[in-house]
Design goal:
Blueprint: E1 18-24, E2 38-43, H1 49-57, E3 74-79, E4 83-87, H2 98-115, E5 119-127, H3 134-146, E6 151-155, H4 162-175, E7 183-186, H5 195-207
Parallel strand pairs: 2-4, 2-5, 5-6, 6-7
Antiparallel strand pairs: 1-3, 3-4
Amino acid sequence: MKQTQTSKPTKPIEVKSVELAKVIAKPNDKFPDPLRGEFAFVGRSNVGKSSLLNALIGKKVAFVSKNPGKTRTINYYLINSKFYLVDLPGYGYARASKKDREEWRKVIERYFSERSWNMKTLFALIDSRHELMESDAQLLEWLEVLGISPVVVLTKIDKLSSSELNKQLKYFEQVLSNYKIREIIPCSSLKKEGLDRIWNVIIEEISKE
């Protein structure tokens, strides 16, 4: 697992075009053509996933749901007509019912079973301000069973002081060493820190073709 580090805000890929190419809402909805692959983003509700996607793309394309924990669609954003950024539904909302949690699991299970072959990287978003939550740990354990090694993105680092950030980075490096993690990327959508490292992961995967 690569060590964490903050990085200067740069943007290796120029996003010339973006469109919401496909929304998977029902079990019989068909997934889009594979093109040059897809890069999926998953995390707890309110972890800052929509803000991160908007910051990466450079425009508002992902919207925060008015009903956290209720959104169960898989949204495919087509970038430069070449590859997708995939917005997976959020999990762990405190008020979500057992039925809602089961529905989320069904959606995610279908995605991993039908699209993992085309998924170049899974970015697992975790709030940097807190310790690893049970739902995050359960996701990481599930991914291990599925043989998926995610890149962990620690969100909202701009909310932490320098000393708090250093403390949290050390904590996550230690606790995440128990899981098969490819890399840890500290990130701030607001200050655009860490975005270049996410793009670098994407570029490296695409260039392997």
